[in-house]
């Protein structure tokens, strides 16, 4: 058990560091393979994507991205020859398969829905969350612990269980398949996270700042606005990114409560099909575009990640 | 903007009250700040919950809104507790929750323990390891369907490369005995980093001087691990298990896209059964009762668990 020596007075030995490093690097490389495979598949042609054995080296193609953004119709070679020269890279790629581009696909509208709903609900959740967190942090609220637990417990319900009555309620209110309905729902789910995280961040800001400001003649609200909010910016930004990631990734509610106009990307991407089954390069292209923002956020967030995923329970 | 809202509220209220709002009526301000959140949660979470409780005592079907709704008392609950399919779904859920938590805790803790050695570049590789857990389980789960394809999929190819079993025979999603493991593998792949991150915080919270003292007492490395490292990291491990347990008990998105509950109903976890009953068979009353039972189960188990966790923390 030479590895256990890491925690002795002496720092971990060079050998144990090397062994640990090798295992971690191996694990990291293996665990990242599925993501690299998604990325690679998005640049394959459909025949290359389903080749056996799986192709690691291949001629890159933009066909997946072309198929993702367009709908196509099959035509006779004679018809295609009678057309003028291809007007773009996609048109050219598609014609090689005896097809012409018929129009844009639904991917763009679904992607825009995702953006609107994710940003809208994040804004509302962070707005409400900041106010409540400040309230809980600075004032004696009767039953504060019970209220905070109540706020957290709303997160324990299985989404499908919530979806049944929400489905009926939205049907009555005309909110089914609307962006507004989804924003309200995601705000309600995210606000519990926002309150818990932000309360932790605001608790860490010394009360003395506000008290000093109030002695200088600021009202409580002005003190909140001028001293607490600027101090809490990092916390608010981290919370916002967590809410954004949740809303961006959410599938269960979106799949059950939206079908057309307000559908987001997660339920849409699996429905991308080509001729004879799933069009994997197009699915991979959609997945890649969908995942890139989250990768960027993960890297930005890595210092706050722990706090976010444990509702502020672990702060390091 | 907040200032303006409060001011307009202040102007609209009678003078003595206005002075309080504008001034330092902390009580008023506290409620002004907290009530919007509580109201939203009441409207979107609690009201629907009560509606679901009401529906669970009826024979309501959402696809026939005009039919007369009859009160059936406890009949739905009785039927669920006697329903063989429900018990099978609960067993599938238990299998899924048990194995994912076991694997994630073992692998996650080991990884954290290795990373804690602070070898060169550990921060970079930690970030790489963390990536899968941030991604959409639905979108990634859907792509795993491709990786699992018996012949063309990368997973089947890698397994056959290592074991020598022909790739065509590795039907992770079509084989009745392999399918329950296919969802365990994807979930473990996605969420091991989560457990790892929490365990890492636990390991880093152990003060160095305890190890120094142990070293002075000539405790073996093995002994140090069992009587210092593990007990002191335990509250963190338990916290990670709590969060993963709740999440996996509710598991829907990844499984729905990966197997959809199939083949047959071998991977039909509770949420999938619930969805089939509620949105495919449209047995709204019946599925509401099942939803309530699930909610009570999660809530009850989580409460018991938190009590145990607090005991461990106080030790």
UniProtKB/TrEMBL annotation, chain A:
Annotated membrane topology: Multi-pass membrane protein
SUPFAM superfamilies per UniProt: MetI-like
Transmembrane segments: 20-40, 111-135, 147-170, 182-202, 223-248, 280-301
Subcellular location, record wording: Cell membrane
Predominant location: membrane
Top-level taxon of origin: Bacteria
Any one of the GO CC terms: plasma membrane
Entry keywords, A to Z: Cell membrane, Membrane, Transmembrane, Transmembrane helix, Transport
Family the UniProt entry places it in: Belongs to the binding-protein-dependent transport system permease family.
Keyword field contains Transmembrane helix: yes
GO biological process assignments: transmembrane transport
Ranges where the ABC transmembrane type-1 domain occurs: 111-301
Name of the protein described by the UniProt record: Sugar ABC transporter permease
CDD domains: TM_PBP2
From TrEMBL, chain B:
Family (UniProt): Belongs to the binding-protein-dependent transport system permease family.
Membrane topology: Multi-pass membrane protein
UniProt key word 4Fe-4S: no
Domain ABC transmembrane type-1, first and last residues per copy: 90-305
GO cellular component, one term: plasma membrane
Compartments (UniProt record): Cell membrane
Pfam families the record matches: BPD_transp_1 (PF00528)
Main location, first listed in the record: membrane
GO terms (BP aspect): transmembrane transport
Residues annotated as transmembrane: 29-54, 96-115, 121-140, 152-172, 178-203, 224-246, 286-306
Protein name, as recorded: Sugar ABC transporter permease
UniProt keywords, alphabetically: Membrane, Transmembrane, Transmembrane helix, Transport
PANTHER family given in the database record: GLUCOSE IMPORT SYSTEM PERMEASE PROTEIN GLCT, TREHALOSE TRANSPORT SYSTEM PERMEASE PROTEIN SUGA
Signal peptide bounds: none
Species: Mesorhizobium wenxiniae
């Amino acid at each position: 058990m030479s590895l256990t020596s890491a925690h002795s007075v002496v720092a971990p030995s060079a050998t144990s560091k090397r062994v640990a490093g090798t295992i971690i690097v191996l694990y990291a490389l293996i665990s990242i393979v599925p993501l690299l495979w998604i990325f690679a598949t998005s640049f394959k042609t459909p025949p290359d994507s389903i080749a056996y054995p799986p192709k690691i080296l291949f001629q890159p193609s933009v066909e997946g991205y072309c198929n993702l953004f367009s709908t196509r119709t099959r035509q006779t070679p004679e018809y295609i020859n009678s057309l003028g020269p291809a007007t773009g890279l996609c048109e050219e790629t598609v014609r090689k398969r005896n097809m012409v581009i018929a129009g844009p696909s639904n991917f763009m509208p679904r992607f825009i829905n995702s953006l609107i709903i994710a940003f809208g609900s994040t804004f509302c959740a962070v707005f409400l969350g900041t106010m409540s967190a400040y309230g809980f942090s600075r004032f004696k609220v009767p039953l504060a612990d019970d209220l905070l637990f109540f706020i957290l417990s709303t997160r324990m319900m299985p989404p499908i269980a919530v979806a049944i009555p929400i489905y009926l309620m939205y049907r009555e209110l005309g909110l089914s398949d609307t962006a507004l309905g989804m924003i309200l729902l995601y705000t309600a789910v995210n606000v519990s996270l926002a309150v818990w995280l932000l309360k932790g961040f605001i608790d860490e800001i010394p009360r003395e700042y506000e008290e000093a400001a109030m002695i200088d003649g600021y009202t409580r609200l002005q003190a909140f606005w001028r001293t607490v909010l600027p101090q809490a910016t990092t916390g608010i930004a981290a919370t916002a990114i967590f809410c954004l990631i949740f809303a961006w990734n959410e599938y269960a509610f979106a799949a059950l409560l939206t079908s057309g106009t307000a559908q987001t990307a997660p339920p849409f991407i699996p429905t991308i099909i080509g001729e004879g089954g799933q069009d994997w390069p197009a699915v991979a292209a959609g997945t890649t575009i969908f995942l890139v923002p989250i990768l960027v956020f993960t890297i930005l967030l890595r210092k706050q990640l722990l706090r976010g995923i444990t509702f502020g329970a672990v702060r390091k | 903007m907040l200032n303006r809202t409060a001011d307009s509220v202040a102007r609209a209220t009678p003078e003595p009250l206005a002075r309080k709002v504008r001034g330092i009526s902390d009580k008023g301000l506290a409620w002004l700040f907290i009530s919007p959140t509580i109201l939203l949660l009441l409207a979107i979470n609690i009201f629907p919950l009560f509606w679901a409780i009401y529906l669970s005592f009826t024979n309501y079907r959402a696809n026939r809104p005009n039919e007369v709704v009859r009160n059936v008392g406890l009949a739905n609950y009785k039927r669920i507790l006697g329903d063989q399919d429900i018990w099978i779904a609960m067993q599938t859920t238990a299998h899924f929750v048990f194995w994912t938590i076991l694997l994630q805790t073992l692998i996650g803790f080991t990884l954290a323990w290795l990373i804690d050695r602070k070898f060169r570049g550990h921060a970079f590789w930690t970030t790489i390891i963390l990536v899968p857990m941030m991604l959409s389980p639905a979108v990634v789960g859907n792509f795993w369907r491709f990786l699992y394809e018996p012949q063309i999929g990368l997973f089947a190819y890698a397994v056959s490369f290592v074991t020598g079993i022909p790739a065509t025979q590795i039907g992770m999603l079509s084989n009745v005995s392999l399918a329950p493991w296919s969802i365990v593998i994807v979930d473990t792949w996605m969420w091991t980093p989560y457990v790892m991150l929490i365990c890492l915080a636990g390991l880093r919270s152990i003060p160095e001087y305890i190890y120094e003292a142990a070293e002075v007492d000539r405790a073996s490395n093995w002994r140090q691990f069992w009587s210092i490292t593990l007990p002191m990291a335990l509250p963190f491990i338990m916290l990670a298990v709590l969060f993963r347990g709740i999440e996996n008990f509710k598991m829907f998105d990844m499984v729905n896209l990966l197997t959809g509950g199939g083949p047959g109903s071998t991977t039909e976890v509770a949420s999938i059964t619930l969805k089939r009953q509620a949105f495919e068979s449209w047995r709204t009353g019946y599925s509401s009762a099942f939803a309530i039972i699930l909610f009570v189960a999660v809530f009850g188990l989580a409460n018991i668990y938190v009590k145990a966790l607090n005991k461990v923390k106080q030790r």
